[in-house]
Design a protein that fits this description.
The complex is a heterodimer.
Chain A lengths: L4 H21 L13 H15 L5 H5 L6 H13 L8 H17 L21 H10 L11 H7 L2 H13 L3 H11 L11 H12 L3 H14 L5
Helix pairs in contact in A: 1-2, 1-11, 2-4, 4-5, 6-8, 6-9, 8-9, 9-10, 9-11, 10-11
Chain B lengths: L2 H9 L3 H8 L11 H10 L18
The chains are: A mainly alpha, B mainly alpha.
Amino acid sequence: MEQSGTSTRLQAAVQGLASGVVSALRGGDHPHVVPAGDGAEAGDLALAAVRVLGADALLPGLVRPTPPDPAEVAVFRKAVEAYPPRPDAAPTVRWSHWGMTRALRRLDPSFLPGPSAEPDTGWLEGAGWQYLTHQLAVLAPLAVPGEECAVSALAARRPVDVARGFVRAVRRRDWRQAAGAGRWLTLLPGVPDTVGLEAGLDFVELMGGQDPLVVLQVQAARAARTGAPV
Amino acid sequence: MRSEQITEELTGVKSADIEAALDPVEADGVYRDSRQCAAAALLSGAAKLLLSPPTPRPKKG
């Protein structure tokens, strides 16, 4: 399907932002993840990219021992406030926004607007393992050690289904979905050893490593496996 | 005018674009034949996940 120019520019901005997050997670010289824009348009495009990347835009600030740059947190907050989910938004849009507000509350105690209730998980109750894995991969920024929510609780009840979905994504060469599912699997109890998760994540990075969104998920999964305080 | 509308006018990025990016349809699968999968797995060293499934063998009896 042909993408609009706006959509293409947004995707490019998301990729650029994800590259910055990956660089920061690797400890590279990339102190500011959120790019400075050349003028209002570029800056606001970056803001939209932050909204799409979701809570992962602040992941380096949560991993590093030093607190995130307040200017980055301010941009993140601006994205949260500028792009709330519409009333008819899809569940993944609602959950993504909720995940951002959760991250923001953790890093910016002054942020307390609106209801903090979690969206519902009804759309995933009883979902087939293929659809479940796809949706969880889209919501991979919620896969954060020590941060429970209704989605993570639902995923924890279906580790074998997510493992099956991970293998399916790899075999379909859907590296983004595989990386997101792999990130969830690092946190779930009861994942079969036979899935070969560690080797699988290496393979996903090898094959999909040209996509910063894939590498970001693999890096986040590794941070979770090594017990980094994500 | 809501802040969301102002942002859309400035950037051309509509909430619909953002929500589409946050609710993607599943990508079409891309498959290789078993020999290509095995070669890719061998190239990856320790990664054995994509080794093709075992060759079907005739059932006993």
